[in-house]
Amino acid sequence: MIDGRNCWARRKIMAQAQGLGRRYLKAFFKGFFVAVPVTVTFLDRVACVARVEGASMQPSLNPGGRQASDVVLLNHWSIRNYDVQRGDIVSLVSPRNPEQKIIKRVIALEGDIIKTIGYKKKYVKVPHGHIWVEGDHHGHSFDSNAFGPVSLGLLHARATHILWPPQRWQKLQPMLPPERKPLQREQE
User: Fold this and answer.
1) What is the DSSP string of the chain?
2) To the nearest whole percent, how much of the chain has pLDDT over 70?
3) pTM score, two decimals?
């Protein structure tokens, strides 16, 4: 009889442990299936981080060249209404390769007339629904001087902060080089 009670007690403890394990597993999967869509939505609609590669935005980004890549915060929410200004650093889908995202500075907005650097026309009036983007390191940048005005629909995000390396932590302020200001601006 003593053996039977011990066996019954062991079975009861095992059943309780299995029930507890199932509850924890169930709670984990419930949390997982809520957290994943929320995280994906946040990264797609609000903000994400990205590593900047290349020399096209030097000296603003990656001033050390290949030694270190800046990591920036990309704010998707701030451009949801295509509200950008001259001097903003933006991420956009490359007009030549839709698989690739590029990061450039907004030089001119729709209606502005801009003097180009090596584009097929010396002067361009930026059409409605477009912007003119350039890298800060002219000659090392694949930008509007190569492919022309960019549709606002290709905008991905605005770069707002440098997050890495720690010695470069800073908020990115809109800054338009004086020599790249539009020649004529549409009435604002």
Assistant:
1) -HHHHHHHHHHHHHHHHHHHHHHHHHHHHHHHHHHHHHHHHHHHHTEEEEE--SSTTTTTS-TTGGG---EEEEESGGGTT----TT-EEEEE-SS-TT-EEEEEEEE-TT-EEE-SSSSSSEEEPPTTEEEEE-SSTTS--SHHHH-SEEGGGEEEEEEEEEESGGG-EEPPP---GGGS-SB----
2) 81
3) 0.77
